[in-house]
Amino acid sequence: MDHEHDGRIEDEQSLAERIVRGAIRSYRLHPFDDVDAQVVADVSGVGVDVVHRLFPTWDALLLVTYDRWTELRGTRRQKPPACTIDFIRLTLAEDVADPGLVRVLAGVITIAAADTGFAELFRKRFEEYAEQLEAGLERDVDAGNERLAIPAYQAATQLLAMYEGLQIQMLVRPHLDVLVEFDRSVRTLRQGWRERPVPAWDLDEVPVRV
């Protein structure tokens, strides 16, 4: 076995992990647009050439950083959330404590909306999150924790829109207590979920009696 080769691979993996941790810290310390390869290198304690070698494109480093950071969410929770809405509320509370991640999430929206090679990968992350919420709401309905008069995917879309909207509000209106606003919004959202939609009548099809 080539132990020297294995050692080099391990060194490369350790360096990559160090750079990703440095990128997370960089985004915690600086505005989204101020973070570049040089900033990440300085925070990581490596040369900028090492960053370019292990992550030849910036979007590649951003994607790995995004994935690693979102994986860290919830790892310190002492008990699992009772339902999907509780899960989102806990996540929002963690966002308040870690706004750097929210800046990254907001920043990658422009990448996901662009026509680039990495756009589809970022869009896939957003779609997977919506599907995760949909599956969670379906489990809540089965367990009797939620009542839906609309399809779960519609409820998931509405919940995600509310959550992401409050994330943006948190960044641009720092005086706002987004957890209080979340609780208020959830009450309205749940009320709408439980109401069966009124059928829209086509008046042109209704016979007129004379």
Explain this structure to me?
- By secondary structure, this protein is an all-alpha fold.
- The chain is 70% helix and 0% strand.
- The chain contains nine helices and no strands.
- Helix 1 packs across helix 4 (58-72), helix 6 crosses helix 8 (152-172) and helix 8 runs antiparallel to helix 9.
The tally of helices reads 9
What is the end-to-end distance? 95 Å
How helix-rich are the residues, as a percent range? over 70%
What Rg do the Cα atoms give? 22 Å
Outline, from the CA principal axes?
elongated
Please state roughly what percent of the residues sit in beta strands, choosing from under 5%, 5-15%, 15-25%, 25-35%, 35-45% or over 45%.
under 5%
Mean pLDDT figure: 89
Q: Number of DSSP strands?
A: 0
Order of secondary-structure elements: HHHHHHHHH
- Largest sheet composition: none
Short structural summary:
By secondary structure, the protein is mostly helical.
